[in-house]
Amino acid sequence: MTWTVYLSGEIHTDWREQIEAGAKAAGLEVSFSAPVTHHEASDDVGVALLGKEPDKFWHDHKGAQINAIRTRTLIGKADIVVVRFGEKYKQWNAAFDAGYAAALGKPLIIMHQDEHAHALKEVDAAALAVARTPEEVVLILQYVIDGTLAGYTDKEAGR
Amino acid sequence: MTWTVYLSGEIHTDWREQIEAGAKAAGLEVSFSAPVTHHEASDDVGVALLGKEPDKFWHDHKGAQINAIRTRTLIGKADIVVVRFGEKYKQWNAAFDAGYAAALGKPLIIMHQDEHAHALKEVDAAALAVARTPEEVVLILQYVIDGTLAGYTDKEAGR
Amino acid sequence: MTWTVYLSGEIHTDWREQIEAGAKAAGLEVSFSAPVTHHEASDDVGVALLGKEPDKFWHDHKGAQINAIRTRTLIGKADIVVVRFGEKYKQWNAAFDAGYAAALGKPLIIMHQDEHAHALKEVDAAALAVARTPEEVVLILQYVIDGTLAGYTDKEAGR
Amino acid sequence: MTWTVYLSGEIHTDWREQIEAGAKAAGLEVSFSAPVTHHEASDDVGVALLGKEPDKFWHDHKGAQINAIRTRTLIGKADIVVVRFGEKYKQWNAAFDAGYAAALGKPLIIMHQDEHAHALKEVDAAALAVARTPEEVVLILQYVIDGTLAGYTDKEAGR
Amino acid sequence: MTWTVYLSGEIHTDWREQIEAGAKAAGLEVSFSAPVTHHEASDDVGVALLGKEPDKFWHDHKGAQINAIRTRTLIGKADIVVVRFGEKYKQWNAAFDAGYAAALGKPLIIMHQDEHAHALKEVDAAALAVARTPEEVVLILQYVIDGTLAGYTDKEAGR
Amino acid sequence: MTWTVYLSGEIHTDWREQIEAGAKAAGLEVSFSAPVTHHEASDDVGVALLGKEPDKFWHDHKGAQINAIRTRTLIGKADIVVVRFGEKYKQWNAAFDAGYAAALGKPLIIMHQDEHAHALKEVDAAALAVARTPEEVVLILQYVIDGTLAGYTDKEAGR
Amino acid sequence: MTWTVYLSGEIHTDWREQIEAGAKAAGLEVSFSAPVTHHEASDDVGVALLGKEPDKFWHDHKGAQINAIRTRTLIGKADIVVVRFGEKYKQWNAAFDAGYAAALGKPLIIMHQDEHAHALKEVDAAALAVARTPEEVVLILQYVIDGTLAGYTDKEAGR
Amino acid sequence: MTWTVYLSGEIHTDWREQIEAGAKAAGLEVSFSAPVTHHEASDDVGVALLGKEPDKFWHDHKGAQINAIRTRTLIGKADIVVVRFGEKYKQWNAAFDAGYAAALGKPLIIMHQDEHAHALKEVDAAALAVARTPEEVVLILQYVIDGTLAGYTDKEAGR
Predict the structure, then answer these.
(1) Mean pLDDT (chain C, rounded)
(2) Contact state of F31 with H149 under an 8 Å Cβ cutoff
């Protein structure tokens, strides 16, 4: 079985690439999905494809709805949803995705620095793991998917 | 992942072929489905297969129910539902499909000309995109599936 | 038990009032719900409450979405959904509601004149009754709710 | 029918009281619910009831989970979910609630000032109405519940 | 809490009345529902209300669909479904109701004589109780609803 | 896409083989499933595998429950459920399967001879097609899956 | 709104009565439900009502299935499920109920002494609160239902 | 079709390997899944990956939640869930899994020795088969998947 993992949230660092590289190195049977992470494309897709809007609200609205075709579909198909909160910006879409995934019963892994712990306590409370780094997420995936935990299962094949 | 897209509605122009050709040209991993688009077959299938009906109502009913085996199954399996309203006819089955897909939580793309915008406002209000042409639908699919938006993501691979 | 019946569709004749009066005369334990049937209010509610839109599309969109808060909630709570198609207009919202209710598994009663039978065959095929008049709908409700059928159950209390 | 409306989000102004007072003045059949809005109680409930935690993360976690008993239950029972984003703080729990409600198919009304429109575009894209003030929310509820729109339905009883 | 119990199946003996009388005598908080049990009304309702059909198949079809408005709605609202198989006739509608209720996850009580046990083994296998008499069903309801079991809980109030 | 069709009901004639052969001859992308059709195996499986039961009721029960592991799983996975009623026996399990599939929203095709039409009217009323012969079922599948209807679509590829 | 709380698990102490008394004293709008807590009645109900079984396995089976009519229905209707693990016995039914409730998405409160914490870690991991005493459960309910937390909200009405 | 079978419960004997070997020998199209069965890894995974916890409760909690990512996902994907209760320990997680699977409607096979029959009666009552040995489970799978029952279907291919 190939596991499907959706990587939601922060788009300004290469945490997705790190997780994907780590999973590949670990030989995991896993397929990753994500929102479109090109910031400008994501902002402008509505008007670029379906016509300009003089009002910024509708400019944003048309784009956000097209993005939702992708994000809601991929979250709905995911076995696990990882949501990373970065150090800057409001990131309300990340928290929205976490709530959306939680209501669908998807196992949630939340990633953030300690400084955000208090502000994210309701989000963390819905998660099955709270991690700080891409490495930790890779190790969780390795354990969950392959049953491998360094120092424990090394001599015994996980399932 | 292969996306599944159901193409509902108007059956007198080649819009489905245009979308399929465009998706193929764009190299999208997508599989299309649709109702039987042969008008007379769709009308007569009930009596052709299960026996003549003197009453036109039951003639239609037997056919419409057999068509429903196909259409409800394929809508249920679709990741995205596109519904096109043409320029003529009542097209209540198109609006029915849109409502059916909406209640199942399927992302909806509605296609129609501007002149129908007011009459379709409740249908459009349930959609995540309202397009005018097959080209626009192809571009939406390309963005949603591949993350590609001309002028933005060209130099950066979508996911 | 009080049954809840949603009356969708055509808003230019008094068919809702006829059904409600008939149900009351028959002493049925039934509660009716419906969309806002004031045409102009329904068209303008978005901009009247949330600010003008120069573009007619968004004018319609804002109103249609507010109407959807009401209609989707009430259809979701209905035990039975009646959808009437009148003699004029596109009435795509009526067909949309029928599809929406069908996908939710709601028992559907469709009302229309014979002339629309062919165009409505897919909608009718999803219905459990196709009626022509408000009187017929009242009699169906009386049978379904009280088990009463004139000439049959008169001397025997329905359940 | 009594409508149930959950009021999520910002807890430092009296917007909930304003909406409740407005709804009462309008004579709406509506029942409101909300999270516990006492900030300190909400933060400390876990340790206050189930024992101190030296680690702030678990202090928060125990409280957030008890709050979730209340919030997820009440969102699940709501007909409409209103989420207000205030001017300060991260408010990730508000966005989480919006996503949670969206995935449950609840009609969403989002309240915020214009300055947050861009950051909230994904949240707004899932809403059926985006309002700025408690007054607007009351008017929306009045229209949705009673069918009343000032200047339109005054002489005609809503349903 | 009032429990709702749907009584499906055989309509030629007074077993429903016996169960209802027994439940009343036991003071149970229970509300019963059932199909229309007037055989001829149930057969003819379609044509009586919506117009004659020369073809017996459609005569039956129209009636059966109207009956389905009642039966599917009431099964859907029931907490418990009791299905009685009598000594005569095919009673396929009873077995259909049992399957329908089973797929909805409704607790099933099946009533029949020993002679039918083998033919009903798949139906019984989906049930939580297989009874022979109305008295047994009343005692089951008394235990399930009030926690009362003669000789055991007499001196101890059930919950 | 490969369609999955579950063939429920009568086990004493070769109707399943006829449908499978017809589908193969027509080149349909379809996969068939069915209950275990060996009558004695199906009756005795419980005691054969899990130990003898002196009481015939439990003998039957243990077997019927093991059969249910297969039948409920396969019905749950089917795109279309075909239920055939033969000329003999009670066949309550066939009607049970029809009800079970109906509640899951599976498109139903019912097969029976005209003489059973009245007794099966509630079952037929839940179906999207009522056929008499395996040939008819094959033609329905051919139309539904391939869009092919002899005399209509011959020159035009179905979708 | 009246909250419904199901009290599952250990039946040899008066913890249910303590919670009910505490909730009453606190004036909470709450309705409690529970399994039949009379041990012998619960064991024997199957054979007492539906006939003796020489084999103890079927004796137990008939009783356990009748109990399931009550327990699954009441868990399904509960807003909150409390499961108490006592100091003795296997109590597999308590853990079963916890898993059943968890899969239905019910908020879980688990009660047990510290000595069982390790053995119950998977059950606790699915809970939103882990308590030791009936008093703690009452305080949680008071907070969740009324928003009251001693020392915090005393001067401020909860919602 | 490949069937998916989740093997829950006891982790100290090689029953899983026996079932897998038996299924392989029988040539069944089946894929097995299971929790991580390395006891220490399963206990410590939380702190090993996400940081030490001085409090044993949180040590356990972090691990149990990561295990839940795996177990809930795999149970959710399983066609059949087998739960084995061994001779020692509390095994509440096994009973929890059984309840969890039951509420999801998964066909359950429970394995245990006779001595546990009474204590497991509620769990057994939710099962479609109660087996004692891995051999019995293999034979059940062989029958369910291939329709093969020794002595009955040997000369006749199952489906």
Answers:
(1) 95
(2) no
